[in-house]
Amino acid sequence: MRLQPLPQESLDTELRFVHDEISNLITKSQGQASMIDSQGALLGPFPAMLHFPQFGIPALSFIRTLDTYATLDKKVREVAILTVGSTFGARFELYVHEIMAEAFGLSKSIVASLSAGIRPEGLNEQEAITYDIAYTLTHGKIVSNSTYQYAVDVLGKEAVGELFFLIGSYTFIAMILNGFDIPAPENNTK
Q1: How many angstroms separate the CA atoms of 77 and 163, rounded?
Q2: Strand segments (E) across 108-174
Q3: What is the pLDDT of residue 190?
Q4: What are the mean pLDDT values of the chain's consecutive 10-residue runs (190 residues total)?
């Protein structure tokens, strides 16, 4: 790990506010995963965002917007996120979203396949097209016209747009996690 988590007491007023906002958000939306250490410092991509607030705060704003206006089914979102995380080997992203995917109802076998970078058996139509699109984009390819049109038929045009931004956002997070070599928590308990 190239950046250490920042204890709350080390933060100035502005960053303390950002820290507290993140803490409240993740506790509410992803409380099943350990994202705060024993000293109250944020883990995962958040230390990087606090170390470099000129980039991190705008990134957080964008990510929060994706959550605020989310319309995609939570299982569909997790299929996309786990596909991104597995493609890039982002350990913390996989750790959190394996837990969240199971909490939202994806089976252990589907979660395990997605985390291993394998197209799982048993995906419904929305989850399957989501996997195909996430896999295509994270492998540097263009989504074909037929795949795009099928996705619009299955998910709707607005949801496909949301999906593209979601995939891009979690690709960004994976790059931050990998660039700063951020692991999953050592004492991760599901």
Answers
A1: 8
A2: none
A3: 44
A4: 90 90 81 86 94 92 91 98 98 96 97 98 98 98 98 98 98 97 74
pTM of the full structure: 0.92
Write the secondary structure of 65-110 as one string of H (helix), E (strand) and C (coil). Answer: HHHHCCCCCHHHHHHHHHHHHHHHCCHHHHHHHHHHHHHCCCCHHH
> What gap in Å lies between CA 94 and CA 190, rounded to an integer?
13
Give the residue carrying structure tokens 């709350």.
8
The residue among 71, 67, 85, 101 whose CA lies nearest residue 135 is 85
Q: How far is it, in rounded angstroms, from Cα 79 to Cα 57?
A: 26
How far, CA to CA in Å, does 51 sit from each of 81, 92, 96? 24, 18, 21
